[in-house]
Amino acid sequence: MPGYAYIARDERGRKVRGELEAENERAVVLRLRPRRLTPISIKKKSALTGIGGKDISSISIFKPRVKTRDIVIAFRQFATLINAGLPMVQSLDILIEQTQNLTLRETCIKVREDVKAGVYLSDAFSRHPKRFSPLICNLVKAGETGGALDEILLRLANYLEDAENIKNRIKGAMRYPVFVLFMAGGLSVALLFFILPSMEELFREGFGVELPAFTKFVLDLSRFLREQFYILPLIIAAIYLGYLALKKTKKGAYWLDSLKLKIPVLGKLFHRISLSRFSRTLATLSNSGVPILEALSLTGKAAGNKIVERAAEESREAMREGETIAAPLKKYPIFPPLAVSMISVGEKTGNLDTMLNKIADLYDDEVKRMVDSLTSLIEPLLIAFLGGTVGIIVIAMYLPYFTMFQHIGG
User: Fold this and answer.
1) What gap in Å lies between CA 219 and CA 199, rounded to an integer?
2) What is the mean predicted confidence (pLDDT) over 111-136?
3) Range in 200-204, 249-253, 325-329 the model is least confident about
């Protein structure tokens, strides 16, 4: 369906600009009339076309990616419209107009059509798993059932925003290390592939003495990498494919997540992130009216760690048999005694969601402190790594000169 950009005047004579998807200009006029808008100009939006006149923007690789921030803004706007007492379909109409991301707007249009056909909003969301996760769909379903959809949408927006803030903080901390590693790799490649070959010819022609063993080793390594350069990408690809294959199996994924928690410094960070995500997700689901058994299942999958997921499943089975959530968690070292005790107190006092939120706040603060300290710790280590990498090659290049001077002096 083509898009149209319009300029109209409202009842007070103010100009209003917007965009609509309609069959033709007349359809745009008819859709503006119920809003008491008088169109001044209506222009069809130009679309990028490919072979056969097909709209390139409809091809998935050309569609803009839907970011978490886009969904957060949409949920906040949607909650405001619902809270104002507007009908669901009308709220979706306004939301579609306000959504800037074309991919998300297209998804919202499909959701609106499903809602018009009598489908529940949560079921309409579930038809788009790439945009709306099972956690989102279940929370929306709980909001529909309890008649508090606007509150649930705001909680969802806050939850997604908190998770995104942690992710962005970690990404920001990793930018500098990645840049330094990239520079070290680039300098090493330049030295091994371009500078050392010319130095090797100079050593052969101008030296009458035997080269040092260390220089021979570096030259042999440079020669091997130049002649067998395709082996390194093949090794990297094989390791990556092996990692993906291992991650797809239950035992392999569990082993990888266990290994991730044992990495020096970073393992502790991954541990705190998993605990924070577990606590925040379970608190949000529990406080929103999602049945506890279903909440535990969703929480385990959303934690991002197979050990936490297995612990959540055991807690789920224990609750079916009449036990508490905290009891099975004690078996797993990933859950510290403090977290288990707070969950146990929350269950006994009937304030489980409050205690879970406190646990999440505690570990969120710890994650922030760890990311800040990690940045200051990694910086000198990376500088030392960069200097060491380049220094080793430079030393290998200059050792023959010292040997030659010793030979001349002798």
Assistant:
1) 9
2) 87
3) 200-204
* Total domains, the chain: 3
How deeply is 298 buried, as exposed, middle or buried, from its count of CB atoms within 10 A (0-12, 13-18, 19+)? buried
* Residue 128 CB-density burial (10 A; 0-12 exposed, 13-18 middle, 19+ buried): middle
Which residues are registered as beta bridge partners of 55? 49
Nearest CA to 92 out of 183, 79, 226 is that of 79
Domain match, 277 and 310 both: yes
CA nearest 285: which of 111, 345, 293, 72?
293
Give Cβ neighbours of residue 2 (< 8 Å, ≥ 6 apart).
21, 22, 23, 44, 45, 47
Q: For the full predicted model, state whether its pTM sits above 0.70.
A: no
- Give me the pLDDT at residue 52, please: 43
**What percent of the chain has a predicted confidence (pLDDT) above 90?**
1
Same domain, 106 and 12: no
Residue 198 included in any domain: yes
Range of the domain at 267: 163-410
Mean pLDDT value across the chain: 80
Distance in angstroms (rounded) separating the CA atoms of residues 64 and 370: 33
The share of the chain scoring above pLDDT 70, in percent, equals: 90
What pLDDT does 197 receive? 75
Which residue in the block uniquely carries the two structure tokens 């705190």?
272
Instruction: Looking at the structure, tell me whether residues 310 and 342 fall in a common domain.
Output: yes
Check whether 206 has a pLDDT greater than 60: no
61: in domain: no
* 232 and 349 share one domain: yes
Report pLDDT for 48. Answer: 43
* Residue 109 exposure: Cα atoms within 13 Å on the Cβ side: 14
